[in-house]
Design brief:
Elements (H helix, E strand, L loop, with lengths): L21 E4 L6 E4 L11 E6 L2 H9 L3 E3 L12 E7 L2 E7 L7 H14 L3 E12 L12 E4 L8 E3 L3 E2 L7 E2 L8 H17 L3 H11 L4 H4 L24 H4 L22 E8 L7 H11 L1 E5 L12 E8 L10 H18 L2 H6 L3 H6 L2
Parallel strand pairs: 3-6, 3-7, 7-14, 8-12, 9-12, 12-13
Antiparallel strand pairs: 1-2, 4-5, 5-6, 7-13, 8-14, 10-11
Bound molecules: zinc ion (ZN).
Length: 370
């Protein structure tokens, strides 16, 4: 590896005493943070690694940075990742996105491994973006909600459903298990869960505060009208190759829809759900398979990247729900769902003291020691 400028203490000293430090309010009007406008995150800083799959998620991640750093001193010679650097609360954060038009576990693994080469001090990993929900009688998942990967029955929070056997008439059989998210993230998740349970959350307010400051994002990222959150019965299939909206071709007939009561005032909206996220290289657009995996495995959400990361880039997976993994899948809720996931990720990071992160092993060391 070529020589590079490292600042093993996190680079904080570089600007202290320079008289540039000032107090500002964070982007979403919540945590006040110290901000220095010109400081550049160096590759040697202790860092949170945040991976997104698509541009919509990348934008949502960027707008939650309290401080954006320009430029990058160095990347590994074979690193083609696009990075955005900055700070969330007190955490140096490096955000990367998958190449345009590429989805799935392999591109995700590739982006993560490049990030670890260029940022060897990444100690905390996050995969943040959108996913398809699997609502069930047990989990009243709505569009805009957030699903966080959480260990269940001793298994990691990610279920690779193409790493197994599907035999007619039998339950799906798992043949490979993925690592569970790192303990530091799982304990922060417990802390945040308790905080939300006792005090509620301000995720929607945080998103609105950002959108007020960035009117150009409003159309795509604001919360869509609740009437567009339709959960069709699994027998109602959107006509194949028909791009027309569900209102036009599937309709609002109550006989086709699963009726759900409106959320009460005291219920969190969006709601945060914790549990198993199903991940595979295929797009899930099948309500019957969705319901089968929800019933048999207690799957809450479907996505396409996490299974490529868990054993190479230990991370917590956070997914905003933008559709119901069925044939009615469309993009209307993607912007808001991406914002909700990013808002949750920020709250989670703000629960972790930076000193605690410094004590964590570097992900690159965990991987190389096998
Ligand atoms: Zn439809």
């Amino acid at each position: 590896m070529p020589k590079k400028k490292l600042n093993p203490k996190g680079g904080e000293d570089a600007t202290s005493g320079a008289g540039k430090r000032r107090k500002t309010n964070s982007v979403d009007g919540r945590t006040p943070v110290a901000s220095t406008s010109k400081r550049i995150l160096s590759n040697g800083d202790d860092t949170v690694g945040w991976i997104c799959a698509i541009t919509t998620e990348y934008v949502a991640a960027q707008v939650f940075l309290d401080e954006k750093h320009e430029g990058l001193e160095y990347v590994s010679p074979n690193d083609y990742n696009d990075y955005t650097l900055g700070k969330i609360g007190k955490h140096n954060t490096v955000i990367a996105v998958l190449p345009d038009g590429e989805y799935g576990t392999s591109p995700a693994a590739r982006v993560a491994s490049r990030m670890l080469l260029s940022f060897p001090n990444v100690r905390i990993g996050l995969m943040v973006g959108i996913g398809g929900g699997a609502p069930s009688p047990k989990h009243a998942i709505r569009l805009g909600d957030v699903v966080v990967s959480a260990t269940r029955d001793g298994k990691g929070g990610i279920f690779g459903y193409d790493l197994g056997k599907t035999i007619q008439g039998q339950e799906f059989q798992t043949t490979a298990f993925l690592n569970q998210p790192p303990e530091i993230l799982r304990t922060a998740m417990s802390g945040l869960k308790a905080q939300y349970e006792s005090e509620g959350h301000q995720l929607d307010e945080a998103i609105n505060n950002i959108l007020k400051k960035r009117p150009r994002l409003q159309k795509k990222y604001k919360r869509p009208n609740p009437s567009s959150d339709r959960l069709y019965k699994s027998t109602v299939v959107h006509p194949a190759n028909n791009e027309a909206s569900c209102v036009a071709v599937c309709g609002d007939d109550p006989s086709k829809l699963i009726s759900r009561p409106e959320r009460a005032e005291e219920e969190d909206n969006p709601t945060i759900h914790y549990g198993l996220i199903a991940s595979a290289n295929q797009l899930m657009k099948d309500a019957t398979v969705r319901d089968k995996l929800a019933a048999e495995k207690d799957v809450l959400c479907f996505e396409m990247e996490a299974a490529g990361l868990m054993n190479h880039f230990p991370c917590l997976v956070i997914r905003g729900i933008c559709d119901y993994s069925d044939t009615h899948k469309n993009k209307d809720w993607q912007g808001y769902a991406a914002m909700a996931a990013a808002a949750y990720a920020k709250d989670l990071l703000c629960r972790i003291p930076p000193k605690r992160v410094e004590a964590e092993k570097r992900i690159s060391d965990i991987i190389s020691s096998g």
